Amino acid sequence: MSRALITSGPMGSGLNLPAVDMSTSIASFETPMPVFTASGCAAAGKELDQFFDITQIGGIVTKSVMLNARSGRATPRMAETPSGMLNSIGLQGPGIDAFIENDLAWLRQRGARTVVSIAGGSVEEYGKLAAKLRNVEGISAIEVNISCPNVEDRGQVFACDPNSASQVIQAVKRNSDTRVPIIAKLSPDVTNIVTIAQSVERAGADAVAVINTTLGMVINLDTMRPALAGITGGLSGPAIRPMAVRCVWQIHQALPDLPILGMGGIRNGDDALQFIFAGASAVSVGTVTFNDPSAPMRVQNELEVALAMRGFTTLREAIGYAHRGPDLDEVAEEQE
Amino acid sequence: MSRALITSGPMGSGLNLPAVDMSTSIASFETPMPVFTASGCAAAGKELDQFFDITQIGGIVTKSVMLNARSGRATPRMAETPSGMLNSIGLQGPGIDAFIENDLAWLRQRGARTVVSIAGGSVEEYGKLAAKLRNVEGISAIEVNISCPNVEDRGQVFACDPNSASQVIQAVKRNSDTRVPIIAKLSPDVTNIVTIAQSVERAGADAVAVINTTLGMVINLDTMRPALAGITGGLSGPAIRPMAVRCVWQIHQALPDLPILGMGGIRNGDDALQFIFAGASAVSVGTVTFNDPSAPMRVQNELEVALAMRGFTTLREAIGYAHRGPDLDEVAEEQE
Amino acid sequence: MAPLQLTGQVLDVRRAGMYTVLSLTAPGLAERTKPGHFLNIGIGGDESGLLLRRSFAIYQAQSRGVYGGSVDIVVGVHGKGTQWLVERRRHDNLSIVGPLGKPFTLPKDPANCILVGGGYGTAPLFMLADQLRERGCRVDVIAGAATEEKLFGTLEIKRAASTLTVTTEDGSMGVQGRVTDVLDDIITKTSADVIYACGPMGMLAAVANVAAARGVYAQCSVEESMACGIGVCMTCVLPVIGDDGITRMVRSCVEGPVFRGDRVRWSEVGTVPTDALGAPTEGH
Amino acid sequence: MAPLQLTGQVLDVRRAGMYTVLSLTAPGLAERTKPGHFLNIGIGGDESGLLLRRSFAIYQAQSRGVYGGSVDIVVGVHGKGTQWLVERRRHDNLSIVGPLGKPFTLPKDPANCILVGGGYGTAPLFMLADQLRERGCRVDVIAGAATEEKLFGTLEIKRAASTLTVTTEDGSMGVQGRVTDVLDDIITKTSADVIYACGPMGMLAAVANVAAARGVYAQCSVEESMACGIGVCMTCVLPVIGDDGITRMVRSCVEGPVFRGDRVRWSEVGTVPTDALGAPTEGH
Ligand SMILES: Cc1cc2nc3c(=O)[nH]c(=O)nc-3n(C[C@H](O)[C@H](O)[C@H](O)COP(=O)(O)OP(=O)(O)OC[C@H]3O[C@@H](n4cnc5c(N)ncnc54)[C@H](O)[C@@H]3O)c2cc1C
Ligand SMILES: Cc1cc2nc3c(=O)[nH]c(=O)nc-3n(C[C@H](O)[C@H](O)[C@H](O)COP(=O)(O)OP(=O)(O)OC[C@H]3O[C@@H](n4cnc5c(N)ncnc54)[C@H](O)[C@@H]3O)c2cc1C
Ligand SMILES: Cc1cc2nc3c(=O)[nH]c(=O)nc-3n(C[C@H](O)[C@H](O)[C@H](O)COP(=O)(O)O)c2cc1C
Ligand SMILES: Cc1cc2nc3c(=O)[nH]c(=O)nc-3n(C[C@H](O)[C@H](O)[C@H](O)COP(=O)(O)O)c2cc1C
Ligand code: FES
Ligand code: FES
């Protein structure tokens, strides 16, 4: 790689920096831009389109949709926590048919790249969902949410067991268009996330999305009971970023050819760059969107400046850069 | 429980509140006060004694000590993260003999209740450590750190495998004074923490300490490599509090008779009360001590006020209170 | 019109009883504001551990003036975020998103309106009262709270109202009791056509019940915990009956906060009614 | 004497080139301060996402005066915490812990002393220079930085020094080069007995080397990342040779930040030397 290191300082404000080729790919899905929304943090894109042009970012990852309409859980569904939040939405949504008819149609017409996230209560449901999407136009990739800790049936966290995880991926693969890459979304709540990544890769996943929320809980000190109606909820936001970067690093280390969509607490371009350096090919911005509705666009712009300041001319060169061997000058130093 | 609910407000400032009996126990260890330091966040008490009287809190949990002196890891050993930090100390310490001779002797002479934390690289080492402590005076309990993700040998995270975890506890039990309770300190980095709690209980643990740090990582954007010399580190502080409360809740739910020493991001009395309501019998204050060197004392005082304001006259009544069945008025409401 | 995201400057901070009124520059926002809109404010800057914005009803909106547009909000200290907010000083910057939500619907023809505010819930009723009177409506106001100090703006709102009735639960001001203790009478006296209400959930439920019993059309502005305020997170839902008669868990930030009183299933707020669309079925 | 934990008020904020000098009330702290002590400041209040305190050398300490004791620190903006700090205004409160660390050791008898400061590393040298002169020592100062703007206090420190030599790497002020380019000469000219140094690790290593080569006793104040600053966390260690000749990983916050130049294993800072006490053995 040839790079002229532009150090930060007075000119580090983004002025006069060369443009960076931000294109990247998640398996066969080629995208000109690397920053996506995160499932469940952008609905189906329409609301965010009021704050920035959603066709200018990598794309919209839609809220995980199930086969049938779902009311979700009772409220309270959220609690704020230090540098993060808990949620327990319970996958509220219109069901796949209404989703295709309304949300997906709108996204297609709007010209936004779309990653459809699906969630099921059984291997069969995942298969059916994939089949429903089979001949639908305008889907860049399918993200398979096998890790949501919020589903009503607590036994069913597919992402926590290598076998169930791979069964789901197989069912989705079998039933979906081979040209549409399948991204398995993993949970950090496992003893060894690499094992899960390996098993979904073997089952046919073309990429992984890392990480979903981690299970947490808050006690409401007025009611002296759990703050969420769902008792536990998913922890997200900057609080979990170090955990997410670690998961991306571990998976990229073990499976350097498996594309990773990285996420977890990304707040700015520097945060996004950590994920890229750790091995992510693209990133999603989730919870921070609640703080800043234009966050995905802003993060993408900041990421470009951050790359340019470090002399990168393409995003692709930066993917996994933190895993490189010792730099030449470091080697020289050691030999002294 | 008879309690007169004193609501917060002008008099919620701690004025005119009745004193609360703060005594509690961790298995056979009876303590008049429920707030402890956390291992690795208080050295062996001497430095904090400059900021508050360490005999006034529950006690000091000392930095995990190994059989031999250990240099720990190279620096950088820490990175700040949103509402938390990563550390990768690598269990630097003087070794058990020097620890007993100097640190423990000082603590005994100072009159502080002391929980000795031990860590080993093998089951055998744990056994030897327990044996070394066998006839030493002034030990209120032994905390067995089976969950530190920072040990040099990465394969050896005992806490992540029910078998290794119980082997360690058995070795410690076999070699230690039966009057000194054994607290197994668990890692949250497992698929199911209840399984681990069950296995250490079966192996003879008298209590569990929940939670140790969770594995995280930060990339330094100047060097474009991991920020810590140890690559990954343990994430601690308020960021992980919801995860910690969830672990305490799950274990207390499954094993209501197993005493829990709760910790993870406790910053104030309200935070401590969350742990107590979730099922902890006592709590440790760790990382926040770096922000506020008198935090353990302050948290204990605030916890007493928080209990009194809610009408509790003893801490013991509050342990696990969030698990109670519906209140009478709620039942009435539902029947309407 | 789409909400704006902007940085506003604190123009003025003044105490009003228990509350703090903040005036903020907000170019473009005032022009878009209708009575019942709210805005979202970021707490504590980029390194704050408090990630979520806090929501406040827009109390006043001045689209002209030296500052090229400003808005006022009324803040009651509840927890850490509102505490931080009332500590702001003149010239501090605040991150603002708004106007948000569906505002109150105004009657096309002159009508007799009762405005009911609980606590700081009177805040959005000022602009509403003004606009109703501009349309030739009669406006009667009821302001209620637990105690006198928790009332907001009772002196000022008098000007825009034909009558003002104050209720406090402890009798420290006005009639001792709740707003619903006087509502029935005032409906009769004023031959009310519409009731507008803003305040705690319990009050809204009670008002909606009285309105229903009397056959008066009611609009209630609810307050649910919101993570995003812009419709993307699904945390702020409550069970609402649609035009088709089907109950859905509906986002109060974009489909509310103002709802028709007879459409919200008040007694089931906080639950998912078993007949709601997509409600968990037995054995699931 | 034990460090204090207290809330100080910002008395004054003034720019000094690239740096910001903060004066803080700190009753009791000034009296305890010796040259080389540092203090720790909390960033952003109870809800801040920045949990760790930031460390600053004590630049001035006034034990008397209208405010019953105050201290000054010199802040260079490095990241988020220092940025927040320089945005403070008069009357803001700050949480302070100090004085911390082992200060410089002063010679018992009058001696010829060279004080070397890199960048804001001159800050703790002001008090040191004053106290050395009170003891009849000769004080010569070398202040170095990459460029003129990164120097601190060169005008003021002249007063306390027999000579001041400035070096900048870009030649924008004084001699072009590094402090060690002039040190050797000044040792000769002043027949120096002791060198005191504070600045970046690389500079300290170079100064310690020159001092060792010339047989001059050196004390260096190091700057390591610190989580606690009070000796309880073990994050701030570096390899230091003890009186017994054994190298240990030593806490720079309580056993430093001032170390004897010949005791720190400068080239191995950031590593654990294989002969350090308890260093990992082969195959472990
Ligand atoms: C549409 C709408 C309009 C509002 N208008 C006003 C107003 O005009 N004046 C006023 O003083 N308050 C108003 N509130 C309530 C105000 O938003 C809360 O008091 C505030 O969010 C509490 O934040 P906190 O940090 O002080 O409390 P905390 O309890 O520390 O907040 C923790 C979290 O819970 C949320 N939360 C807590 N209480 C409420 C609540 N009552 N409503 C919504 N979210 C809550 C917070 O937003 C935050 O995310 C309004 C709320 C909504 C939804
Ligand atoms: C004993 C001592 C004395 C110091 N004296 C001064 C002084 O007089 N004036 C001055 O401007 N600075 C001084 N520093 C450095 C100052 O502490 C750092 O610049 C500051 O901590 C950086 O914080 P930040 O939030 O701006 O940077 P960030 O990079 O955002 O900080 C992230 C974390 O790394 C730590 N960190 C980063 N850089 C340093 C560093 N150089 N040294 C220690 N910790 C660091 C921070 O404390 C924080 O925990 C001193 C440091 C030490 C240890
Ligand atoms: C309110 C909320 C709802 C979410 N819903 C989903 C979901 O439906 N499907 C999914 O795969 N992830 C869901 N997530 C997880 C996010 O997509 C993301 O993986 C996680 O929050 C970490 O990223 P963040 O910290 O940037 O939010 C949700 C997160 C939040 C906060
Ligand atoms: C710097 C540091 C060192 C630690 N060292 C140890 C240790 O030696 N043994 C141990 O069991 N836990 C250790 N811990 C974990 C804490 O005891 C505690 O379990 C964890 O940090 C969560 O609590 P907290 O968020 O209050 O810090 C350490 C934590 C930190 C931050
Ligand atoms: S608050 Fe997010 S959808 Fe309403
Ligand atoms: S900074 Fe914690 S021991 Fe030195």
Automatic annotation (TrEMBL), chains A, B:
Transmembrane segments: none annotated. Its main location: cytoplasm. It is found in: Cytoplasm. Its cofactor is FMN. Residues 23-305 form the Dihydroorotate dehydrogenase catalytic domain. GO terms for biological process: 'de novo' pyrimidine nucleobase biosynthetic process; 'de novo' UMP biosynthetic process. It holds the Pfam family DHO_dh. Pathway: Pyrimidine metabolism; UMP biosynthesis via de novo pathway. GO terms for molecular function: dihydroorotate dehydrogenase activity. NCBIfam families: PRK07259.1, pyrD_sub1_fam. PANTHER family: DIHYDROOROTATE DEHYDROGENASE (FUMARATE) (PTHR48109:SF1), DIHYDROOROTATE DEHYDROGENASE (QUINONE), MITOCHONDRIAL-RELATED (PTHR48109). Belongs to the dihydroorotate dehydrogenase family. Type 1 subfamily. This is Unannotated protein. It comes from freshwater metagenome.
UniProtKB/TrEMBL annotation, chains C, D:
It holds the Pfam family DHODB_Fe-S_bind. GO terms for molecular function: 2 iron, 2 sulfur cluster binding; flavin adenine dinucleotide binding; metal ion binding; oxidoreductase activity. InterPro entries: Cyt_c3_hydrogenase_gsu, Dihydroorotate_DH_ele_sf, Dihydroorotate_DH_Fe-S-bd, FAD-bd_FR_type, FNR_nucleotide-bd, OxRdtase_FAD/NAD-bd, PyrK_electron_transfer, Riboflavin_synthase-like_b-brl. Transmembrane segments: none annotated. Residues 3-106 form the FAD-binding FR-type domain. GO terms for biological process: pyrimidine nucleotide biosynthetic process. Its cofactor is [2Fe-2S] cluster. The keyword Iron-sulfur applies. Keywords: 2Fe-2S, Electron transport, FAD, Flavoprotein, Iron, Iron-sulfur, Metal-binding, Transport. Belongs to the PyrK family. PANTHER family: DIHYDROOROTATE DEHYDROGENASE B (NAD(+)), ELECTRON TRANSFER SUBUNIT, DIHYDROOROTATE DEHYDROGENASE B (NAD(+)), ELECTRON TRANSFER SUBUNIT-RELATED. This is Unannotated protein.
